[in-house]
Amino acid sequence: MAELVAGAFLQSSFQVIIEKLASVGIRDYFSSNNVDELVKELNIALDSINQVLDEAEIKQYQNKYVKKWLDELKHVVYEADQLLDEISTDAMINKQKAESEPLTTNLLGFVSALTTNPFECRLNEQLDKLELLAKQKKDLRLGEGPSASNEGLVSWKPSKRLSSTALVDESSIYGRDVDKEKLIKFLLEGNDGGNRVPIISIVGLGGMGKTTLAKLVYNDNKIKKHFELKAWVYVSESFDVFGLTKAILKSFNPSADGEYLDQLQHQLQDMLMGKKYLLVLDDIWNGSVEYWEQLLLPFNHGSSGSMIIVTTREKEVACHVLKSTKLFDLQQLEKSNCWRLFVTHAFQGKSVCEYPNLETIGRKIVDKCGGLPLAIKSLAQLLHKKISEHEWIKILETDMWRLSDGDHNINSVLRLSYHNLPSDLKRCFAYCSIFPKGYRFEKEVLIKLWMAEGLLKCCGSDKSEEEFGNEIFGDLESISFFQRSFGTYEDYCMHDLVNDLTKSVSGEFCMQIEGARVEGINERTRHIQFAFSSQCGDDLFLTNPNGVDNLLEPICELKGLRSLMLGQGMGVVMCITNNMQHDLFSRLKFLRMLTFSGWHLSELVDEIGKLKLLRYLDLTYTGIKSLPDTICMLYNLQTLLLKDCYQLTELPSNFSKLINLRHLELPCIKKMPKNMGKLNNLQTLSYFIVEAHNESDLKDLAKLNHLHGTIHIKGLGNVSDTADAATLNLKDIEELHTEFNGGREEMAESNLLVLEALKPNSNLKKLNITHYKGSRFPNWLRGCHLPNLVSLELKGCKLCSCLPTLGQLPSLKKLSIYDCEGIKIIDEEFYGNNSTIVPFKSLEYLRFEDMVNWEEWICVRFPLLKELYIENCPKLKRVLPQHLPSLQNLWINDCNMLEECLCLGEFPLLKEFLIRNCPELKRALPQHLPSLQKLGVFDCNELEELLCLGEFPLLKVFSIRNCLELKRALPQHLPSLQKLGVFDCNELEASIPKSDNMIELDIQNCDRILVNELPTSLKKLLLRRNRYTEFSVHQNLINFPFLEALELNWSGSVKCPSLDLRCYNFLRDLSIKGWCSSSLPLELHLFTKLQSLYLYDCPELESLPMGGLPSNLIQLGIYNCPKLIGSREEWGLFQLNSLKCFTVADEFENVESFPEENLLPPTLEILQLYNCSKLRIMNKKSFLHLKSLNRLYILD
């Protein structure tokens, strides 16, 4: 779609140009008469153009010359804006020089500026261009007919602007109840997809509510209880197997990571093994069958009942590419539900009966929206509080309804919403075209980008640019142009159709480049965002610095470029040479925003100082080691992001010259530059370091009066003059981290006075105090002074003998106390028992760690406590309060003297209990934990009894390790048990509990456990080094139809049991160790799903079973099976066309050369040879046909 509503965008740009030209700095730079004349002539030209902009906006769809005229006009406006920025920057530099140079030098410079001003001529050139464009409107027949300037435009005065608090709850969704219940029913029934996980596709037009329906289902309580694991991943148009696999893995487990697809897929497979999961893949556009099959490989290892939901506009993709098990074809909303949705968002709590004149008009407007929820919601939110009948009629009768552009008129509705926004909102929204579909952005980051582009100049207002940007963001969110990303992230995204609208607004002025080629750019391109993926080209190209240089070379020709966002793709390490940096910085002199986030970048070249107009520089997650001094010449810089630049230790000495800097995000550097107090525009500062013997640092911090948000102050132990601390202005700080590192132990009293003087404001929400050397805590650390404190962390406060009265902090939800070795008892003072207020009435999370001298805990009730963690408290004997009605998670680690845990308590909601390394513990659990789902007991050597009499109806995961005295622990009836692991418990006498739901069993080094009867529901079975393992005659591993992974280790067993393994259907991974017979009683070729086979330490094994190996085998490993290696040519490896990895660990006695010709298949990718000390020759000829081999390991 072509550029849209350029007129509205240009109107606000005109105003900005006039205001800049009339500013004091530019007037002083020229003679005022010259400026007055320029402003007058410019006003005439712009006013002439402004009269026809809205008319041109409509006519551009019928007349290509009108569109061309609008594009040229926007191009000239950009040029004028850039020129004015150059002038104001030059004026600012001259002013700074004037303040530091002798008077005679200043006079000479002033006289020179009067006689030879290079900018005046260029200004007149821009004026000529605008006057020419003003004259061309007659040739285009603009302004000749009835005025269309107010066509369909309703007034939106800034004073009536909606705030983000006016948002309607997302649960106000209509007309999808039946669809929701059908989908939930299908998910709960656990329909079998055969050999692959079932895929449910929700198909419908853009804006129909596919994602909304998926969210409703995903968050339903029945679904939450039904699935063990859930994940939500946005896919988008760019299909990338590696990137998508990594995103899915991280959605299931945020700490997971990997660099190779094979590595990621194995992690994902292990994570899903035997678990019932739900995965939602939102907004799928394309992808080949081959790529999808590769992506879905790990997902066939989950438990029966696992499901994948996808949303897509393309029925072809759902049916033929994904081969969906079930198709939900989402239809338009019924008329009645359309009206209900409109009323909810347009009238917001008011009765439509109060506005009878609007109901008829509103119903007609709704009919034009085509039953699409996104269109209805967006338009209704636009009309909220616009209760004039005249304004609603304008919307109804506007010609813009007829400007359709696909997707069932959805774009015409969104276009209409955009058209009726104030000009400042239009400009900010248009800038968002730099983001690709599905891109997640943070509110604060986007506001800083708007600032860098100069979109937040709020003339005649006391608001800061950040405050103005926050209002604009709220307005765009209120009409659903922005929406919160799904999941736990505090970020936002745009609907695909809204993203399409931003692209249409910006047209050729904003480009996104994916892959290894730069296409579609021209001299008008002002904003570029690069996106790289693992499939956008040859890996060598992307990791080759010269390859990236070649990619960026065309960009250097775009002399008017203002934004360059060099993104980092998953699995791609991007590098840039110093030569390319030199070219970029020297030739792109109008850059306002530049980001290298995530790039492999160790230094910036000096030419960075040439970017005089740069306002936003992002170097986060780079390997930058130092910043050049020339960075201090970036006088316009507002935002500098250096987060996680761990190799950066200090800033340039002249850093204080960056007088316009507003946001500075630092890593933990070693020292601050001098005169930081001169940065009096600074609003956010992540770290401040006070050096030893340099307390002027703190005086500099005191001069920064506009700081808000979060700050870490390190080195407070170096402060001796408490008066400096008292001058700090922390009134707007919401999160304060104080570190008293530095100084001497004898400065304890000084530490106390400094902390007392730091008294934060009452709005503080988070406080961390670290390495504090005072003997007591400050008086302000109590409820009446910090009523809004939500999180508190005390760490390394070693000289304090008692904790402050924290129980009276009314809003405290999270409390963590670490390494406070002076604490021996926690008593009534901790709670504030002299008060009538219930202590810790909001506390949900409590952690004690490394409290090495803590002996006694006098407990009270914690009514809302959900999580309790006690770690490395070696002298604590008794742990818990007796009544924790809300407790859900309990972890106890390394408490050496702990004798009792929670034997007598009441814990009705406890779901997860982990206890580790408590050697004196003899009893652990009460008899009844009705909600317990996960239990782990490790390294408790004196534990004798655990839960033999207990009732645990919901227990799903149970693990015991290294409890040498434990004799009774396994109840015979655990109906919900899914995973059982028992390790190194030689005294434990028990049989396997009965459970129809058990899917994973792992018994290791347990000589007295009877494994003669096993649940037939098992998917994963591991029996390792158990001396007495015998299968009953009637079972003998025959009755395991769902078994997918089997590991049997008879090392150290009295005898190898008889073995009849017939679990052919699903077995994928088989490992056998210590088999003592000459043959395996298995028909391996019948295991058609077997992908991995490993044999270890089978010295008597001479051959593989009759029939050979299964054809789908991918990995084969033979370790210390000397007789079996001798028969290798009989295995038929050459015929295994799926085999990719072959491992042999053997001395190769009597083997002259390896491998023999035609021994290995051509599909082999990895060959590993270990302990091959007697192997003499590697047969070169045998490698000639191994075209796929990419890794060969030979280790002795």
From TrEMBL:
The molecular function terms in GO held by this entry are: ADP binding; ATP binding; hydrolase activity
Q: Name one GO biological process term.
A: defense response
Note the InterPro entries from the entry: Apaf_helical (IPR042197), LRR_dom_sf (IPR032675), LRR_R13L4/SHOC2-like (IPR055414), NB-ARC (IPR002182), P-loop_NTPase (IPR027417), Rx_N (IPR041118), WH-like_DNA-bd_sf (IPR036388), WHD_DRP (IPR058922)
Q: Which residue intervals define the domain Disease resistance R13L4/SHOC-2-like LRR in the entry?
A: 574-849
Q: For this UniProt entry, which residues form the secretion signal?
A: none
Annotated Disease resistance protein winged helix domain residues: 434-501
A Pfam family annotated for this UniProt entry: NB-ARC
Q: Which residues form the NB-ARC domain?
A: 179-350
Q: Which UniProt keywords apply?
A: ATP-binding, Hydrolase, Nucleotide-binding, Plant defense, Repeat
Residues covered by the Disease resistance N-terminal domain: 16-98
Question: Carries keyword Repeat?
Answer: yes
Keyword Amino-acid biosynthesis belongs to the record:
no
The cross-references to PANTHER family, in alphabetical order and at most eight, read: DISEASE RESISTANCE PROTEIN RGA3, PLANT BROAD-SPECTRUM MILDEW RESISTANCE PROTEIN RPW8
Instruction: State what protein this is by name.
Output: Putative P-loop containing nucleoside triphosphate hydrolase, leucine-rich repeat domain, L
- Which species is this UniProt entry from? Medicago truncatula (Barrel medic)
The taxonomic lineage of its organism, from the top, reads: Eukaryota, Viridiplantae, Streptophyta, Embryophyta, Tracheophyta
